[in-house]
Model the fold of this input.
Amino acid sequence: MENTVLRQSLDLVQARTNVAKMPRAKKTQAMCKACLFGVGAVVLAGLWLARFNSAMQAQIRYEKVQGVTENIVIYDVGCYIGPYSDHEKAEELASHSRDCLMDKDCRDKGSSWSYVFIANGALMVCLAFDMICIGFGAFKPTIKVIGAGFASCLCFAHLAILIATAVYRF
Done:
């Protein structure tokens, strides 16, 4: 009973035995499911990276117009600048953040959402790669073991990114 699920998933001999016993239809089904999850991760990565790209495009436009390269990400501090569609709501929100507006370090740091976009995008790209490894691992046990090991690392990275997102959000 010492063999845990993680040890079994990282054991190459056990993986070879499991792959050899598995019928071809089950292997194909496992590969299709993993690849579908991988495609879903690619779609999510595209969304996160598109948001990051829009933040970087705003930065490029700001630097061209202003002619200066400050050490700030304009997307992250843009919420303080405006324009606002609802000026009353903007004044209410600004009154809550006056302390941060008066502190240069806090103001220059901004919301840090651009970091959240790139971190989540990179995580989804890694997750897509891992799902594809696990999918093809139905036929090649070595790839399955690599995917299982990488998945363990991704769990910790995902937890760290979730915590960072919550910290930046709240």
Remarks:
- The chain has one domain: 36-169.
- The mean pLDDT is 79.
- The longest helix spans residues 24-66.
